[in-house]
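Re: that backbone. C-alpha cells:
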C-alpha cells in the first residue's frame, strides 16, 4: 500500500482515460486473489510495475499492465518484470500469458516478441483514440517440481 501514490503516478505517466488504473483499482488488485502485482524497486523508488489477472478455471493469465518510468527505461526492468509475472502465473498453474498492446507501440511490441510472445489476433479500434490492439500469447513453461 505504501507504493500506491507512486504506482498511480507511473500509470498516469503513460496511460489515459479508460485504460488508466484508478486508486481504487490498484487497491482492489493488491488485495485480490485473482491478481498478481509486482513492483520494481530501485533504491526505494518505484521504477516500474506489472499486473496480471487470472480467471477462475482458466489456464490463461492476462497481462493487464506493464510500465517502467522513463528515467529507468532500457535497463532490462520490463523484461525482468515480465519474467517475474510469468513465473507467478506458471506457479498458479497457468499455461499461457496473453496481452494486448497498441499496434503503434513499437518498443513494447519488440519487448514481447523478443520475450517469446506470438501474435495471434487483433482488436479493431480497441483503444480510445481508435488505435487497434494487437493480441499476443506465450506458452509458459511448467514450474519445476518442488
Ligand atoms: C514498454 C516498456 C514497458 C519497456 O520497458 P523497459 O524497462 O524500458 O524495457 P527493457 O529495458 O526491459 O527492454 C527489453 C526489450 O524491449 C525492447 N524495447 C523496450 N523499449 C524499447 C523502445 N523504446 N524501442 C525499441 N525497443 C524497445 C527492446 O527489444 C529491449 O531489449 P534491448 O534493450 O536489449 O534492445 C516501457 O517503455 C514503458 O513503460 N512504456 C510505456 C508504457 C507501455 O507502453 N507499456 C506497454 C503497454 S502494453
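Recovered sequence:
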Amino acid at each position: 500500500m505504501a507504493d500506491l501514490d507512486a504506482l498511480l503516478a507511473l500509470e498516469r505517466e503513460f496511460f489515459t482515460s479508460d485504460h488508466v488504473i484508478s486508486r481504487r483499482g490498484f487497491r482492489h488488485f493488491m488485495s485480490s486473489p485473482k491478481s498478481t502485482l509486482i513492483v520494481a524497486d530501485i533504491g526505494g523508488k518505484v521504477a516500474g510495475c506489472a499486473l496480471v489477472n487470472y480467471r477462475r478455471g482458466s489456464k490463461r493469465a492476462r497481462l493487464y499492465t506493464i510500465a517502467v518510468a522513463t528515467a529507468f527505461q532500457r535497463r532490462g526492468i520490463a523484461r525482468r518484470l515480465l519474467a517475474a509475472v510469468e513465473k507467478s502465473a506458471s506457479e498458479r498453474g497457468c499455461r499461457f500469458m496473453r496481452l494486448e498492446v497498441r499496434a503503434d507501440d513499437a518498443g513494447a511490441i519488440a519487448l514481447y516478441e523478443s520475450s517469446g510472445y506470438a501474435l495471434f489476433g487483433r482488436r479493431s479500434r480497441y483503444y480510445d483514440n481508435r488505435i487497434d490492439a494487437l493480441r499476443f500469447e506465450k506458452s509458459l513453461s511448467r514450474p519445476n517440481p518442488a
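The chain has a mean pLDDT of 93. The beta strands are 35-42, 45-53, 60-68, 96-102, 118-123, 133-139.
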